[in-house]
Specification:
By secondary structure, the protein is mainly α. It is built from nine helices and two strands, in the order αααααβααβαα.
Length: 259
């Protein structure tokens, strides 16, 4: 009787919680939480850098889980909650305290819209991860949106611009929020493979990027975020133009005009 109970107990599916990838996820969450604390204390430079460091930890936890075969549903949910803190709540709170407070109700509502869009983006990713091809994301990834906001703060502080910063960040946060919930395809580079034909070019780009980040990280990171966003939006608009021309050509061939 006891042996049969042990067999039944062993036959039950075990919900595993793997240590190593979840440590990286916890580090991501820690950085997001610290960004909020640093912003509350008025240290916006450390807050912005903390968000960027959180992105590095977020990019590592999934890779570590796959390399060690330690993927789990628990890890997926934990990662999403950490991402909402680090890439949704933290950049919105930092941005609000940095310059959106003078707008009053409009300022905190804009920050709230950013948080909502980040939450919707993460929820949509979780439910459609198995249906969307791995080579692109549907909507701007929340880490890129958070990196854009954080690097914008670093960029503004480093360049010491004279123009008023609240309109600059308000427009940026609302734009990034709209891109997160859009249907625009953003490249994930997950299926990119380096071979003999492109190895030299890839190596040159990587070395140049590292050098630029080392020389002026505040400017380089903000420029990279804008370049990634604008490039993918431009490709999307170009594809829409091509699709419209194709539809118009089909209607013209049939002798009718599209309504």
């Amino acid at each position: 009787m006891q042996d049969s109970q042990e067999v039944q107990r062993d036959a039950r599916p075990r919900r595993r919680v793997y240590l190593l990838p979840n440590l990286f996820t916890t580090a991501n969450l820690l950085c997001g939480f610290y960004a909020v604390i640093a912003a509350f204390n008025g240290n916006f430079i450390n807050a912005a850098w903390s968000i960027i460091i959180a992105i590095l930890f977020d990019s590592m936890d999934g890779r570590v889980a796959r390399l060690t075969r330690a993927t789990s549903n628990f890890g997926v949910q934990y990662d999403s909650l950490s991402d909402l803190t680090s890439f949704g709540i933290a950049p919105a709170f930092v941005g609000y305290l940095w310059c959106l407070q003078p707008y009053g109700r409009l300022g905190w509502l804009a920050a709230f819209v950013y948080v909502v869009c980040a939450a919707l983006r993460l929820a949509r990713f979780n439910v459609s991860a198995d249906t969307i091809p791995k080579k692109y994301f549907q909507g701007l990834p929340s880490p890129v949106a958070a990196a854009t906001v954080a690097s914008a703060i670093l960029f503004y502080q480093d360049m010491e611009f004279a123009f008023h910063r609240p309109p600059f960040l308000l427009a940026l946060m609302l734009t990034q929020a709209s891109f997160m919930i859009s249907s625009i395809r953003f490249s994930s580079f997950k299926e990119f493979k380096m071979n003999r034909g492109n190895s030299f070019g890839v190596l040159a780009v990587v070395i140049l990027t590292i050098v630029l980040i080392a020389i002026r990280p505040e400017v380089t990171l903000f420029g990279m975020c804008l370049l990634y966003t604008l490039a993918n939006v431009s490709i999307h608009l170009y594809s829409l133009t091509g699709a419209n021309k194709k539809v118009a050509a089909e209607f013209e061939a049939k002798g009718t005009l599209p309504k």
